[in-house]
Amino acid sequence: MKNKTVKSHYDIIIVGSGPAGLGAAFKLAENSECSILLLEKKKISSGGLRNDCKQNYTFPVGFPLEHWSQESAEKLLKEVKTHLYPKIEQKYNIEKYSKRAQKIGVQILSIDQSHVGTDKSSQLISSLIDKLKALHVEVALQHEVHEVAADKKEIILTNGSKISFKNLILAPGRADYDWLQEQLDTLHVEYNDNIVDIGIRVETKEEHYPIVKDYYDPKILFPNKVRTFCTNSGCAHIVREKYKGYYSVNGHSLSKENKPNGLVNFALLKTIRLTEPVVSGQQFGRILGQMVMQLSGGSVIMQRVGDFRLGSRSKKETFNSDLYDFEPTLKSAVAADLSLSMPAKILRDIWKSLKMLDTIIPGVLHPSTILYYPEIKTYSNKPKFINENFMVKDSYYIIGDAAGTSRGITAAWASGIRAANGILASL
Ligand SMILES: Cc1cc2nc3c(=O)[nH]c(=O)nc-3n(C[C@H](O)[C@H](O)[C@H](O)COP(=O)(O)OP(=O)(O)OC[C@H]3O[C@@H](n4cnc5c(N)ncnc54)[C@H](O)[C@@H]3O)c2cc1C
């Protein structure tokens, strides 16, 4: 695939094969005769689909409200389903949890979800890519776009080759926000990036968080913009992911065919909206991540709830005590002190939310529960769009998490459809 010869011109080039790029590619291929090139810098395709792959099919999960109405999201979610064939998970006892939550000012959203699993998502991706190829889309993996030459309507790959286009869709995902910022500068498109989500990942025994038996990935909204995110159970583990200059934790679980390990993990995130003079959410996240790197000797940190409550740092020995009866799944996390690394405002709101969660689902604050930090989600560059199809300049579209048009798989796919609709209307 690496040596695939790409042509020197296409009607449409899509950069990034995550769900946003795929959504655009399918819509365009199924509705036009245009020549389409889908470029992906990695060896394996499809960005964030490659992970746990929980798909949410209920508005507003994943859909930033400044870009989506319920009507526009629901219309496109129907289309997303025709490509991803979700098997919606059953939910039980939601009323019971919701009643308890409402009493203390917390909201539980009832969401239609499907779960593929980290071990199964690659099969889904391969079948999607095969279908795209059958639909005359050229897919070039290990082809990284170095820059966009706006004056010539060309992209330049890192191997030096140049490819011209009539329409360009950029869908590079949130990990490559700084690359996208450079392209936006070149294109003279205004943007801002003032939002970031900062939080922790909680790991505990399933018996301490039994709601997951009733609701696979419970979406719980707390006061002060704190929410649960990406719950994993069954065969669940925590990973650390490398970003530029720091690590962020994240959670995974394997499909139901794997033996359960009795553990659950989920993130508790607080959305921070920065105002002048601090305007870069990505930069703020990076600074906090780098502080943890300094304090942990180059990794992420973890603390047992029992130690946190007593105001004492966790130590290696803490994890061997008889009270603390499960091993952390992220072995590279360093036992430390959360309150030394997290800004007070964030820590206060997260701890308060955890106490509320423990009131709704008693047990989650068992002394053995582990709090990992940091989990950082830098979302977007929020470009200034000139129409509802996420066009930023004539023939240029920017979609997906990198552009703040989505915050999840299904919304990213839907944003790809919207950009494709713009191009189809212009043909
Ligand atoms: C570990 C993890 C787990 C997640 N789990 C879930 C989940 O279970 N459910 C959910 O809804 N969301 C989940 N998300 C979020 C979800 O993955 C994203 O919302 C979604 O993937 C965004 O889609 P996207 O197409 O915008 O970007 P991405 O999926 O990030 O795809 C962007 C692609 O563009 C490529 N690219 C970037 N720059 C270039 C370049 N210059 N040249 C060529 N290619 C380039 C990247 O390699 C990447 O493959 C998870 C995210 C992570 C990191």
Task: Describe, in short, the structure shown.
It contains 11 helices and 20 strands.
Salient structural properties:
2 domains; eight-stranded mixed beta sheet; binds flavin-adenine dinucleotide; 427 residues; alpha+beta
Extract low-pLDDT stretches.
Answer: none
Number of helices: 11
Beta-strand share of residues: 25-35%
CATH class of the largest domain: Alpha Beta
Give the CA-CA distance, first to last residue. Answer: 30 Å
Radius of gyration: 22 Å
Number of spatially distinct domains: 2
How would you name the CATH homologous superfamily of the largest domain? FAD/NAD(P)-binding domain
Structural class given helices, strands, pairing?
alpha+beta
Bulk shape: globular
CATH fold topology of the largest domain:
FAD/NAD(P)-binding domain
Q: What integer is the average pLDDT?
A: 92
What is the quaternary state of this protein? single chain
Query: Quick one: how many beta strands?
Result: 20
Major sheet, described briefly?
8 strands, mixed
Residue share in helix:
25-40%
Heterogens: flavin-adenine dinucleotide
- CATH architecture designation of the largest domain: 3-Layer(bba) Sandwich
